[in-house]
Amino acid sequence: MPMIHLTVPAGVLTGQTRGELSKALPRTLLKWEGAPDTAFFRAQAWCRVEEIADGGFAALEDDLPRFRIDVTVPEGGLSPRRKAGLVTEVTEQILAAAGLTEEDGLRVWVLIHEQPEGTWGAAGNIVKFKELAALAQGQRENA
Fold this sequence. Notes:
By secondary structure, the chain is an alpha/beta fold. The protein has four helices and six strands; from the N terminus they run βααββαβββα.
């Protein structure tokens, strides 16, 4: 199941903006995965926003805020085209939320972690990508 983890310096985002991103980022991830917009898949898309203390992300050149987005998906869940779209859209969302411009894009890193088949468990069972894909297809057909 998809999970997105945003690490951001404390105080860069307002509480309202942080809450909005907590909803927008997993929706974006589901969109780029091609998952159906159903209650089941929305409930499985998790987001964690972690604020780190001042200086938690340091660069040699300046003290400007940096953002790290770790995306965990089942291996094979994102094609190269979908990965590129996800990175672009998530970067745009972070920049907008922080009041930054496109020129600040290099301060937003999106790292995609593909979880190999057989290494993701939930509800006491191994989650299998093919089973998720079949479930998604069935829910799309019933929608």
